[in-house]
Amino acid sequence: MKNFVYKVIIKNSISSFDDKILAYLYQPIIGMRSVNLYKLLIHEAEILKDLKTAEFKEERILTLCDLKHDKMSKWIKRLEAMGLIETLYNQEKNSVIYNIYAPLEPKAFFENELFNNALMKKIDEKNYEIARFIFRDEGDFSQTSGYNNTSSKFFEVFAELSENSEIKFTKGLKPKPKRSSPLLKGFNFENLMVQLEREQIIITNNIDSLKEELQNVYCAYSVSQDEILKALKAAYDGQTYKISKNKFYNYISEVYFGDEAFQTTVDVFDPKQNMIEQTNIKLKELETIEPVDYLQGLLRINKLNDDMILLIKKLSSEYKLRHGVINCLMDFSYFKNDEKIVANYLYKIAKTFQDKSIKTAKEAMEYLKAANQKSKKPKNTVNSFDFINDDSWSKTVKKKTYEVETKADAKLDESLWGDN
């Protein structure tokens, strides 16, 4: 769309405190130009409110910001992805409405896995900790400080309202909310739970965690609530009454990426084909699971410590490794170092990957498989993979980080990781 007419509507109350949130939490992710465009549109909304008959066209924004159409489109998309702007387009009128939303409260931002991880990748550890410090909770004074709460309650002050008070509900104008998210429009967790219960699917997973997980998926990918419902049903285990996280993400990845990318079924069992099949399953797991979630599943813990978070961040920001490659490395360390994640060990391999421009989980797996085979040569043989000195990674095919469903008669070929 080009040369369109636009209107701007402020959907939330936006305060000066939001400027601080934008500067320290959003700007590192979306860039200063996107933030400036966001602020300009807020001012445009005020002007359009006064100039009721004015017609503003795209050219106005391009002129005010001194930019080209493609750049503006790029910055708008960044704002959309972070839930700051919602764009509505009427093709017949070639008209756009920009709905402007307030940024998340700092607490909600840091609890949002997508946004928090994005911030960690964009700034170094020191600046990330400073950002958390800026928006820290000051807490309450303890009673030992000598201060006691002497504040009054409502009916202590307005006693006349406590007697014969009749509650009346009116259907007046809807007040403007302080915070809301366009990214979650169309998502209704309670409705999902009701639909599952109707089909006698009772879930025993932590509901709050499940809700947060589903919200992240809905915000991150172009999948509908109906597809999420289908994914939940496909991932449900009637024996444990739980949702299998791996099966859920496998279903979502097939919807989002297309199921041709990871073809894993054969009509007749074939050992060679099964090795390819197992490799594809592993690659899907590595490529589609966030490193934080992957490492938690690998170590079977609910929360990573600061050192583990720093490791993932450094592999991503300093060595520029993608999630699939990071997961592959952590898998490797786990089975080569007695179920330990050794940071310096991984940094050494990460440097090799960086030098060799290894970008995907498949490339990383092939390189490490070759390294694993090379390490079995006699000691007097020249070994270019000097960070590997045993064959313990062969255990990786036997370790379940997340459950993966395969054919009942399928047997795992250890040559998947180069063990013949």
UniProtKB/TrEMBL annotation:
Domain Replicative helicase loading/DNA remodeling protein DnaB N-terminal winged helix, which positions? Answer: 9-218
What is the superkingdom listed in this entry's lineage?
A: Bacteria
The segment(s) forming the DnaB/C C-terminal domain are 308-367
Q: Which family does it belong to?
A: Belongs to the DnaB/DnaD family.
Name by which UniProt lists this protein = Chromosome replication initiation and membrane attachment protein
Q: Which organism is it from?
A: Spiroplasma culicicola AES-1
Please spell out the taxonomic lineage of the organism that makes this protein: Bacteria, Bacillati, Mycoplasmatota, Mollicutes, Entomoplasmatales
